């Protein structure tokens, strides 16, 4: 079982789920996971790592966001230095609502924070060039404010963190401007998230939005990297994983609350996603 890094052992302020440091490891960091989100922004050198089962090479200007549900290992450091931020998603409670529903935020923070990591939902973005030059001063001030810990520091930290995230989202939009910011896919996303425990018909959803199913499919893939149907199933399985490990609800209760037709169908889908049955997953991970 992976080592679990707990945010509460790092955070400087009680009840403020945030920590930042500047770190430059030189030796292997063994496979582990967090009970929070980890953001690493590389300022110098390079390193290699595996996030879940996907290999990455981190170098200057590279920013990676790793969910607490995803294990990772780092190795092969060469003059490596980076800002490391640990935080809980609750920190975004006051973040701009329009930005929270933007494709960049959904891809980098929402899907990633739900433990969905693959070639489509990868929480990595290059901030090289002018964006590195713009982001480093923000992280410098963020680290300084955090370390001083003066009165009002938490509000200043939140504001600076939001500024950093806005720069990241600006770069994401620039990288993906050819994909467009299709309002239909955003409406579909909002509808799906709000009705995950209910039957969802993609054809009916397209009809409600007054677009064709094919148009909605293409728009959703462009903005979120997966088809609407695949996205629905990803979300439901992820919700099920949380309930299996964090509650004592029965498999039947979990199946129903996550929008599956019946426990048998739930077990079949879950095993195809996770390689084990819901009960096996609970036994393995609930420790």
What does this structure look like?
This protein is an alpha+beta fold. Helix content is 47%, strand content 21%. The protein has 11 helices and 8 strands. It has 2 domains: 3-175, Jelly Rolls (Sandwich), CATH 2.60.120.280; 183-285, Orthogonal Bundle (Arc Repressor Mutant, subunit A), CATH 1.10.10. Residues 114-121 have low confidence and may be disordered.
List strands and helices in order, with pairings.
Blueprint: E1 3-5, E2 18-23, E3 29-34, E4 37-51, E5 54-59, E6 62-66, E7 72-87, H1 97-100, H2 103-113, E8 124-126, H3 130-148, H4 153-175, H5 183-194, H6 202-209, H7 213-224, H8 228-246, H9 251-257, H10 263-274, H11 278-285
Parallel strand pairs: 1-3
Antiparallel strand pairs: 2-7, 3-7, 4-5, 4-6, 4-7, 6-8
Summarize the structure.
The chain is 47% helix and 21% strand. It is α+β, with helices and mostly antiparallel strands and 287 residues long.
Kindly list the characteristics that best describe this protein.
single chain, 11 helices, alpha+beta, 2 domains, 8 strands, 47% helix, Arc Repressor Mutant, subunit A, 287 residues, Jelly Rolls, globular, 8-stranded mixed sheet
Q: What is the distance, rounded to the nearest whole angstrom, between the alpha carbons of the first and last residues?
A: 9 Å
Enumerate how many helices there are, as a single number. 11
How many strands? 8
Give the full name of the CATH homologous superfamily of the largest domain.
Regulatory protein AraC
H-E order: EEEEEEEHHEHHHHHHHHH
Q: How many whole angstroms does the radius of gyration measure?
A: 20 Å
Shape: globular
Q: Output the CATH topology of the largest domain.
A: Jelly Rolls
- Return the CATH architecture of the largest domain: Sandwich
Calculate the mean pLDDT score and round it: 86
**Number of folding domains?**
2
CATH class of the largest domain: Mainly Beta
